[in-house]
Protein 1
Amino acid sequence: MKPEHFVVPPEWGWYIVWYFYLGGIAGGAYLLGTLLKLRGGLRDVPVSRLAFFLSFAAMAVCPVLLTLDLGQPGRFWHMLIDRSHGGLAFKYWSPMSVGAWVLLFFGAFCTATFAAAVAQARGSEPKGRLGALLRIAYGRGFLAVGSVLGLFLAGYTGVLLSVSSQPLWSDTWALGGLFLASGLSVAAAALVLLARWRHADLATTGFLREVDGSFITLELMLLVICFASLGRVGIEYARWPWLLLWLLVLGLSVGSLVVRKRVAGGGVVPAATMVLIGGLALRIVVVFAPQVHA
Amino acid sequence: MARTVGFFTDTTVCIGCKACEVACKEWNQLPGHEPLFRDSFDNTGKLDEQNWRHVQFHERGTPAGGVAWNMMSDVCKHCSDAPCMAVCPTNAIVRTEFDTVYIRPDVCNGCRDCIAACPYHVIGFNGSKGLAQKCTFCYDRLQRDLEPACAKVCPTQSIQFGDLAEMRQRATARQAQLQQQGVHEARIYGEREYGGLHALFLLTGAPSEYRLPDEANAVLPRRNNVLGYLGALVTGCLAVLAALVGFRERRKEA
């Protein structure tokens, strides 16, 4: 039986689409930076730093986008502080509430790691208390916690949509995983392009491309699971004009896998660019389809 | 004085006069929108930030070949297990001492998560104020021991107001009366949906005819919390595993 919805859309638009996209990159890049630092070798160090720079740049835009989307941007802090009694506003059962807190904590972790990476890149780590703090921010435990927060940031946005009464969003539980896999693949693709631009070690770039292939495969599997869980609702939202965007997402994901195998030299730039565009198209179709359809 | 209040809307006696809409706008100082002119007497359209009451007009064919009108004055249901209140990240949406659901305008920051969560298309976004708005159950009137404006003016008693328990009794009695009179399709809506509604409706058709989700479709948004996070957790674990395998493969090749 097809679920019935009698709702109005929340009118979440481009700010939210870009937040979902950049949040995925920020979280994904932080995880990749951590893995390269903790499990990689010396040759991976420059790309690891690059990943933390990318993560910080993407993360820094996120709160701005969220604040601009509010009807009352000056009240952005109401997400964290309950205005009526001055205590904390936190609801573990509300993904938006949890997400606001995770963005705050991830922002702190991301900024600290960024500062540590900058200091290391300059080769001039500050002495004293600041130096000690930066060493902690680049340490195993700190990076591991930051990665968990980053993964949460990349994936909770899908859960946020699912925990609603809107058609499509609430009819599947797979959006969290889908957005996370997509965020990771987009972050890896962006990092591949940055590494190439910075003439990074070829083995590191090759590793990132291999991992990106796995992330894209995971994303494609989740896309299938998502449509399987949607049932007849999926068919409704896979019609014209949304069909074009779904095909674009599918085509670019599969295409990027094909390009890296078939094109001479691995088609590094085209394959990565396809992943970047596909990730954005996914968020556009998921965010807008049920809202415009309504 | 604190008490658990409710509405009982008997759609069989609604005459579509829209006095409830006017009284609501008057009391709550809602300017409203330009009226819609379509193939219907319904020129309000829908519940939103300006329309906290909306009289729906439905035309239905009768067995005799005629056309019967079904009118229903729709309103916020003030759900016992309110999805809007559950998701609101700022705690702007609260339960009052009358057990009704109220949006505090000084706390709401216009994130619109409540609009996404409301299964009854009740809440609207006021762009000029930057706030989400909906029926307050005339909270200010309740505090002064007055009944809500819509119930006060309803000329046919289609909208009744009182203690929720009493409203339930009245709804049950009216349903029994109608069924005795041969209206076998008479049913009460709102006894179980979302933990029980504070706005009960007596309907003579399927809930979907009145743009209300039936019991099977009246599901809480939070049901997707656990599975959604679990799906993301499994995805995250698989992704990290794939990366670790990638490192191992690279080491083997080196």
Note: DSSP finds seven helices and ten strands in chain B.
Protein 2
Amino acid sequence: MALLQISEPGQSPDPHQRRIAVGIDLGTTHSLVASVRNGAAECLPDAQGRVILPSAVRYTTDEHGRTRRAIGFDALAAQAEDPLNTVVSVKRFMGRRLADLPDAGKLPYEFEDQPGMVAVRTVAGAKSPVEVSAEILASLRQRAEDTFNDDLFGAVITVPAYFDDAQRQATKDAAQMAGLNVLRLLNEPTAAAIAYGLDNGAEGLYAIYDLGGGTFDISLLQLSRGVFEVVATGGDSALGGDDLDHVLAEAALRDGGVLTPMEQLSPHDKRALLVAARRAKEKLSTDGSVHLSCALSGEMLSVQVTRERLSELAKPLIDKTLSAVKRVLRDAKVKPDEVKGVVMVGGSTRTPAVRDAVGAFFGQPPLTDLNPDEVVALGAAIQANQLAGNNVQGELLLLDVLPLSLGLETMGGLVERIIPRNTPIPSARAQDFTTFKDGQTALAVHVVQGEREQVEHCRSLARFELRGIPPMAAGAARIRVSFQVDADGLLSVSAKEQLSGVEASVIVKPSYGLSDEQVAHMLREGFTTAAEDMKDRALREARVEAERMLEATRTALAADGDLLSPEQRAHVDALMAQIGQRCDRGDLEALEAATKALADGTEAFAAERMNRSIRQALAGRSLDQI
Amino acid sequence: MNIDADDFTLLGLPRAFALERSQLDAAWKALQAKVHPDRFAAEGATAQRVAMQWAVRVNEAHQRLKDPLKRAGYLCELGGVPVQSENNTAMPGDFLMQQMQWREALEDAGSLAEVEALSDEVNSQRRARLQRLGDLLDAQSAFVLAAQEVRALMFIDRLLEEIDIRLQRYEDAP
């Protein structure tokens, strides 16, 4: 039977075996991967038992000029000595142009303004943020595959709720570049809510307070049984636990009688002091008082720090987060007591002063049962497990909404909104436009995203042209522009002149300044195994895809095979058999063609099945109503 | 059941203006639970594509029925009288005078209290007209009159937006 022939060592031929699906929190300062094992979500540790992977990649070249890369702790350790080639916090650059980075001058990198997105110049060449993120994701993928000793079926990757189309698309591209099958992009606050089980019957407004190492995000979610509406988001992209380490270090110097101010310490001393301050801060989450000591060149620093002292130092920072919270509540026109629950995310929310202040502000203790570093990855893992079909009884269904309005530029630089924010997705809308000059044969379409009226205040997503419109009087042409947003919030746009049938379309995708050859080259250099030949890899992927298609078809036939006439069934069987034969031969193109033939040949069947499932849904509902 | 069925049939609801929001939401979620692409994430690209078309269609129906004016406009269209607000401006006779008075009142209003009073008046008119609209649609099947009422209500909603902007300005001013 076909499926047995295509199974490889390490891959199970049993289609009913559970699929390995993971959730990945691709964070600004660190990233994690989690999976549901034995019914519970847990983060997967590396060989040293650490679950956190610092989001840092360092590029070097060896004596033969080949690119070498260090990822995570190893990269971070080299940050001070090699800042130019050690990329940290790359998430801030995803889908951004140089002009979008207000403090680019303060960062230690040499930026290159490539079309669509900035790149960082390193010894190994210009690296796009997509490529750097792909390194981090590939490392996590490897960790998961090592853990399970199996290939991954797919991954759910989290993104901030405010990420626009360009940033989401960049994240998805990075995942694909890392060889991950993206089951879904998931909003980080939504993931945190899922980890706390709030998708089960929780109704009302929930605040997700996310204080990480270097960023603060506050999101307000409206939950109503499976629908997660992002009501408002806010925060401060330059505020986090690292700032607290800094003020604690400065205070320790003062309290310890060291006369040298922080800025004048040597880089090594500064680092040592910050590490000591961080440790002291972490210990103060459980202890009332700790001893902070640190060997500085020349003298020994030794002071006692109490929890009260830390709280006092943290107050200005916490107040800053609470101002952002107030702004978000004001945007949403709600009062703190209308919020039903507060979820704490990010390592910095372990600090008792933070918990106390947030609890006092909302008038209720925040939810802190789960590890705040892990909570986003855990929620993503639960969703991944469900999407992979491992949890058949699971009722979790996330109905997401569009985070930011989508529109088109019209005359005078104004934005015509086509799909407003908070529209449930997937969604499609069309709007008709016309020509404004006699004999006009082309129309420029400029797609933008944002809430402002003027084009220059919105994010430009794509431009394309509809050409070849037959000359007619101004206002006679009927050009229908259609927007389609998929379940991940990603957009595609098409334009069609209705009278002549002239058509143009674009999948909105910012160009990263990378040609196909460059991408192929990057893949060749290898995110997975350097030795793996491109062609082998492509064939392997084609086989996995063919297997996926066969498995899906077999499942469909088992469930609803009765919808097909004997002739139709024979046709599908023949298409399936063909894939089996071609898998053996190792002919990539033939295999891809056969897979596509099966996909095309079962399209009508899939539509029929869907109709049946809807009839069942309706039947089920009327039973409920009786 | 097919994807081209009208919104009410699709969601299994009676074709009427009177509609319980909770019932609409429950029908929407039950249907999305069956057709959403996430339900087919483990299946092939074909199922994904079909699921996406269905999910888009179900969301469209939900969005349209959720909004009372869109729902009313849709009922008029199903009844053979499209609202066509861009090129048809026929409105109930008493309304033309009324709208001019309101416009003037908004322009002349010089205090927060005056704008608030206007806001209250327009809002109460809106409620009354919505009630009348429901009666025209559900009891009388008078689609021509209902379409006029929809156009009047669309005007009211635009006016209320302007009033809100004015109110916002008073709130923001110290």
Note: The mean pLDDT of chain B is 89.
